[in-house]
Amino acid sequence: RASLHDKASLRIEQVRSEDQGWYECKVLMLDQQYDTFHNGSWVHLTVNAPPTFTETPPQYVEAKEGGSITLTCMAFGNPKPTVTWLREGELLGGSNKYRVSDGSLTVMSISRDDRGAYTCRAYSIQGEAVHTTRLLVQGPPFIVSPPENITVNISQDAMFTCQAEAYPGNLTYTWHWEEDNVYFKNDLKLRVRILIDGTLIIFRVKPEDAGKYTCIPSNSLGRSPSASAYLTVQYPARVVNMPPIIYVPVGIHGYIRCPVEAQPPVSL
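Now predict its structure.
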C-alpha cells in the first residue's frame, strides 16, 4: 500500500489506523556510509478514525432476579472515543442500581423492572457508534391482568381471565375454588376447563359454584403469585329442606316455615 510518488513523496493507499506514527525521509548519498547521514526529516502521520467497537455484549443476555450482571463495550478510534451507557434514552451513571466504569455497565440487585434495552454509545469528534443489548430477567411470573368479580345466571357459563408475564415464559396456570384445586372438586371438575392463556371456564354453573376463585401462574422459578375474584350465581327462589310432614300439638298455635333461598335474596 506504500509507494514512492514523484520520486520524493511517499504515498500510502487505503490508510489504516495502524499506519499512524513517525515517518523519516532521508536522502542517501551512494558515496557515503549510511550511518553518517544526518540529513533526515521526520514527519508524524495522524490517522483520524471514527469509533468502532472491538468488544460488545450479546444482543440478548439473561440474568436472574436478585443477581447482578456486567455488560462491557470496548471501542477504538482516533481521537479515543468516550463510551457511555443509556437506557431508554437516559444516560446511566453511578448509583445504587448502576455502576459504570471504563465502558462496562454493572446492573445490581436485578428486578423485573430492569428488563429491557441497554445502549452502549461510543463517540468522538469523528462520529459515533451504538450497540443495543436487551436484558432478559429470569424470575417468577407477574400477574398483569388479574381476574375480576363476575355475576352469571344459573346454568350459564362463567369465565375468569388471568394473564401473567414471565421469563422463561413456560407458564402453567392453576385455579382454586376457595382452598381446593378446581379439579379436586367432585361436582366441579367435570365442568371446568383451563385454557393455555390462563382463562378459566365454568360450564353450566350451579349455585354451589359461587365463591372465591384464585389464579396461580407458575414457571417453576421462585414463589408463584396469586390473584382472586368472586363468582356470584343468580337463581330464582327455591324451597330447601322443607319437611314433608309437620306435627303440631292440639290446642296451640302452629307455625309452618317455608325455607327459601334465592340470589338475589327474596322476602316472603
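Residues 2-47 form one domain.
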